């Protein structure tokens, strides 16, 4: 059957989905049986229907409420009570045994939520202290608000017994996003066997319409960590697709007006940097002072402007640098708060990779090619040529602005704009000392525009446009995408789609020729069953050979046709000795788009569960591939002629995770990938091991260690570019065209990360994280890649071994001394080095000692932010 399908994929790729679907339905373990009346299947289907929406009545007040965790004002006793919470996990549907009681008040300025969580004893209330927006081993209470009642977008405000605050946004694009931050007030108290949460959410922290009577979606959740139970006031069923659409309804909020939302958060920062150049005329240390501000302005009740003026991102966590031997770039996490907070609209369609804004200059790697080399004068005098004095690796932003919001009709609108200045590398003549500057990035404007219309039945349609405009003749880039999701009335089936068009116009940076990928397109279609125990999904997509969203987005490879079919079966109730079971399996296939060539056909399957008594979580994944034709590894354009054959392979991985409630807990993972023997590809195998123990000394102090080790044995890959300046390369450069040289190599990668956290109070903490990364690649032999995937052994003598070390320390002291106001003191220590050829160091401890003994950059910085809210600063009326 697999053989017949593979033939079908090559001859008629657009028939692939039909073949995939037939194969999946032929799998007995996942075939659906007719549901007899009263059968378990019928019961499971009925469980996939959302629970009825409960209604909760708010109470208007005129007297002042003191946020002290006491709930001792008389008005609290007169308000209706939300209680009778229902368990979501581990046993969905059970009523709460230890009651939770919630009351909600409001006035012209804010909502007030008072909650009492009854328990067995004080020891049953777990309360580890952590940083803001970080849940530890603790109970928590949360309130969720869907202020436009569109059942798609919402807010979440969390509070732990230790008083740690967390807040999140909920949306189809971002899911649960804890990067969003708001300014609100809270206090908690322990009282006998209970703990109390008192919360004040000012209207300036949320957005809502100016309707006379507000009807909002609302829900409350309680986590009882001692038993790992989670309870919701309005039942949330794990079988039902979506989260916001399962909230209840808040009524009774009348005659409130969206306030003027205007706040300013100015900052000042100071840096001291030290690097031991130890060269005459070069200072080992430098200092700098910076200042700027973040501005938030509520344009109206629906829309907010966020701007950062002269931003400073020097204190963000260091990137996890790696040795990249693949043909694709490395995608790094975004750690800059302005680009992680409130960006759910801009992330629609996956067209925005925020690291492009203020990222690496276009001409960063072209500087060495512009150095004036050594020359000899007619008198025989030798000039040594130029060297690079500085080549900035990031682009400094001038400002960035976001405008976003949603109307009462459910239309979300987003506008993002950022400006960056010219970036120059500085070159110096070795003999005369004369310096000159080389432009590596022209003045640039980055822009995103989004329209997102929420529809009933958990559906939406969206339009997004991204644009990069650069000064001068350097090319500009534009991408437009349309998205939709339509779910049926019962929320059991959904159809999703996306179509994008990319357009580039202008010259290649630093050259006279125009860009060649001027127009391109992409589309993706998915259909599937989304709710219930048994679900399935079919998808098909195409990315043309000229589709390129990478100026403001990220795409590792285009020029592909992909299709996939998958099924999943999940049990959400405890059975046997486990709390739940999640399984999935599928098959996928990819083709080169132009010319149409087979690339890969594979399958995957996996399962995970948690045991009932000890809460040990475990799972496994299996995936296999037929022989693959990798058209991207050779780095040869146009695609289609050269490819690297990857033998059929099977990967197996498994993991285990112990109960985090214990003082000592651990995670462990094991992985291997076995390859079919094929010519010189004998004994090709990959291994992986991950161990991560953690120890909680107390509710304030904890340690964690991560060890990750990977071995890729007899891997076949691109050995690097050839240069006529290298004598060993010259025999493999014919008529100015370099051969594609592949190498058989062993690669070992080891990562050690140690972190510690000490939390003084729920507003003050200290964290330190140390990471050492080492990857060593050693080549055994080489071959020339010819058209059609044929490899020819060659006597290539250049040593292409290399080793890469990265060492980082990030130590952060943080103090939230007032709502929205913070002082941070950060120490960073960084070193990265790559050794190639005969200088490569293969042994781990030799590399580690060498890394410790080579110069490091040290940076100490202090940053102060102070939150100023117009509503608290304006003169009070007499």
In short, what is this structure?
Keywords: Signal. Helices cover 6% and strands 50% of the residues.
Q: DSSP strand (E) fraction?
A: over 45%
Structural class: mainly beta
The profile of the biggest β sheet is:
24 strands, antiparallel, barrel
* Number of H/I helices: 7
Task: Please provide the count of β strands.
Answer: 49
User: Which blocks of ≥5 consecutive residues have pLDDT under 50?
Assistant: 1-38
Quaternary assembly: single chain
Q: What's the average pLDDT?
A: 90
Radius of gyration: 30 Å
Share of helix, binned: under 10%
Shape verdict: globular
InterPro entries: Carb-bd_dom_fam9, DUF5916
Signal peptide: 1-31
Domain Carbohydrate-binding: 67-230
Keywords: Signal
Please tell me about this protein's structure:
This protein is mainly beta and 878 residues long. It has 7 helices and 49 strands. It has a 24-stranded antiparallel β-barrel. Strands 1, 3, 6, 7, 8, 9, 12, 13 and 14 form a 9-stranded mixed β-sheet that branches.
Features:
globular; 24-stranded antiparallel barrel; nine-stranded mixed β-sheet; 7 helices; mainly beta; 6% helix; 878 residues
Topology:
Layout: H1 2-11, H2 16-25, H3 40-47, E1 55-57, E2 59-60, H4 75-78, E3 86-89, E4 100-106, E5 110-118, E6 140-146, E7 154-159, E8 165-171, E9 175-177, E10 185-191, E11 194-202, E12 213-224, E13 229-232, E14 248-254, E15 262-274, E16 285-298, E17 303-309, H5 337-340, E18 375-376, E19 382-383, E20 386-390, E21 397-406, E22 411-420, E23 423-429, E24 435-441, E25 444-455, E26 459-470, E27 476-487, E28 493-505, E29 519-529, E30 534-543, E31 560-571, E32 578-592, E33 597-611, E34 617-625, E35 628-630, E36 644-646, E37 649-657, E38 664-675, E39 685-696, E40 701-718, E41 733-734, E42 737-738, E43 740-761, E44 764-786, E45 790-794, E46 802-818, E47 821-836, H6 844-853, E48 857-865, E49 868-869, H7 870-873
Parallel strand pairs: 1-14, 2-4
Antiparallel strand pairs: 3-13, 4-5, 5-11, 6-7, 6-12, 7-8, 8-9, 10-11, 12-13, 12-14, 15-16, 15-48, 15-49, 16-17, 17-21, 18-19, 20-23, 21-22, 22-25, 23-24, 25-26, 26-27, 27-28, 28-29, 29-30, 30-31, 31-32, 32-33, 33-34, 34-37, 35-36, 37-38, 38-39, 39-40, 40-43, 41-42, 43-44, 44-45, 44-46, 46-47, ...
